[in-house]
Every structure is written in C-alpha cells, then in structure tokens.
Amino acid sequence: MSAAPIGLVFPGQGTQRESMGEPWRESPAWPLVDQVSEHSSVDVEELLLRTPGERLRRTDLAQLAVYTVSLMAWREAADAGLLTGAVACAGHSLGEYTALTAAGVLDLRDGVALVTARGRAMRQAAEDRPGTMGVLVRAGLPEAEKLVAEAAAEGHGLWVANINGPGQVVVSGGEEAVGFAERRAPDLGAKLIRVPVGGAFHSPFMAPAAEELRAAVVRASFGPGRMPVVANVDGRPYDGSGDWPELVTRQLVSPVRWEESVHTLTGRLGCRRLVELGPGRTLAGLVRRITPDVPVDSYDAPAARP
C-alpha cells in the first residue's frame, strides 16, 4: 500500500529562540550549519547556540537561523524515512525559501544567498521606514479589510499582511496606523495583539527591500524541482518552471495567503497529512484551525536515537 500523500510546511520568522540549535548538535544534519555559514559568511553556529534571544530577533539573523533549523529538521526527517509520500511544499513568508530548497527548486547555495539578501534588505527597509504589525483575533478578512479602509479614511497606511486562518489576520503599517487598528478592533468584535517586530512586513513599506531582493534573485538559479511549492502571494502551486523570481519578490509587499495555501495543499494537491518542519509548532496550530479533519504533525527536534 502506498503512503498517503504528505504536504510539507515550513515556519517563518518569529519562531526563533535562544539556543535553538542545541538539540541538533548531535544530529547527522548538523553539518548543514557549516555549509550555511560558508554560503552566508555568517557564523551560524554562534547564532544557533550562543546568541542572546534579544539579538536573535534581528530580522536578518532570525531568518537565517530559522531557515537553517528548518532545513535540519527536513533533512533528518527525510533521512529517517518519515516523509515518504511527500508530494508538495509550502512555507510561511521566510518559510517559502525553505520549501523551495526542500523541493529542489533552489539548491542550498542559492537558497542561503537569497535568505541572506532578503533578511538584510528587510532589516534596512525597516530601519529606514519603521513600522510594526498586529494580529487581529476573532476577525476574518472582511473585518480586516474594513479596518484597513477606515484607517485609510483617517490618513493612516494600514495593510493586510497575513491571512493566517479563521479568526486570525495580521495587519501591517506605521505605529500610528496599528495603534488606530488596536483602538478600533473591539468595535468590530475583534482584538489586536501587537507583534514584537520592528518592521511593517508584507506591506508597501518593504518596497525598497523588494527592489534590492530583485537584484539578488536574478543571480539565483531556479531548477525544475521534485514537487510543487504553493506560493504565498496567490495560494497556487508552481513547479520549478513557475516565475519564482517574481513570486518571491512580490511576496515582500503582498499578503501571505496562508489559509488559502493550506486549502490548496489539502484540496487541489490531495495531501492527506501535513508535516511542519522547523522550530515551534505555530503552523500546526493554524492548520488544525483551517482543516481540522487533516492530521498534522510537527518535527521540531531530532528523533531519539539509540
């Protein structure tokens, strides 16, 4: 009997934590740390083992750390035979690059180069034009879009940044705009919870970062890959022949359509189980809310070995 089709999902920035690499030090996947360090010119072992949590929140460092740990989780799970039947991938924001690497659309060198360029570009854009983000709970997309329209009428730039699942939409913008949303949310039956980030990600605030990333993307090679990857910007699957340079660049200034992406994995692509690979279990929680009838597992630490 063949294995049930599996979809692989990879987390994004925000799942990093201090000493996140410690459980992986004895893993056969640990040599990936040296490879990522070589390609990025960053001491990734230092990031994963000895960097204080506050510093690890820095956008460029957080993204490289999460990408590396997620790749180790994928490599070990695959080598252990736990991913037999994998037919598609998706990743949340940064996780899209891990998905492209796992799917074979990007090789490790190009994957690391793009994650490094993306993180640095986003950090610089956030420093040049500070912003923030907030999670609207108990609010769907219609309520979030109404809030965005009301903010615009008051002269505030507010945008939908992540459509994560039922009752969870993230908005992005300047401090005043997110403050307006925080005050107005209860009138819509919702509550806004601030996200501890220093940038208005997935909004027009990131336009300079998108232009800088575009220059890096043209130097990367996107191959045919082993399986399709569902794109954040439209929730549709693409193989290696898709216009990934445009998709990943546009992602920086567009909403992450995560709820739609999960429905694509479990519907159109026929995945009967999803596996989250990387630090934390954030995506598994979202998947259970989006498709409660589809089993989801998390692989966020090395398997026990004799």
What do these coordinates show?
This protein folds into two domains: 6-127 and 204-299, Malonyl-Coenzyme A Acyl Carrier Protein, domain 2; 131-195, Alpha-Beta Plaits (2-Layer Sandwich). The chain has twelve helices and ten strands. It has helices spanning 31-40, 44-49, 53-56, 59-79, 95-102, 108-128, 141-153, 175-184, 207-217, 244-251, 258-268, 282-290; strands spanning 6-10, 86-91, 132-137, 158-165, 168-173, 191-195, 229-230, 237-238, 273-277, 296-299. Strands 8-7-2-1-9-10 form a six-stranded mixed sheet, with helices on both faces. Strand 4 and strand 5 (168-173) form a beta hairpin. Helix 1 crosses helix 6 and helix 4 (59-79) runs antiparallel to helix 6. The two termini are 29 Å apart. 51% of the residues are buried. The model has no long low-confidence stretch (mean pLDDT 96). It is an enzyme of class 2 (transferase). Residues 9-306 form the Malonyl-CoA:ACP transacylase (MAT) domain.
How is the secondary structure organized here?
Layout: E1 6-10, H1 31-40, H2 44-49, H3 53-56, H4 59-79, E2 86-91, H5 95-102, H6 108-128, E3 132-137, H7 141-153, E4 158-165, E5 168-173, H8 175-184, E6 191-195, H9 207-217, E7 229-230, E8 237-238, H10 244-251, H11 258-268, E9 273-277, H12 282-290, E10 296-299
Parallel strand pairs: 1-2, 1-9, 2-7, 9-10
Antiparallel strand pairs: 3-5, 3-6, 4-5, 7-8
Organism: Streptomyces alkaliterrae
Active site: 93, 202
Protein name: Malonyl CoA-acyl carrier protein transacylase
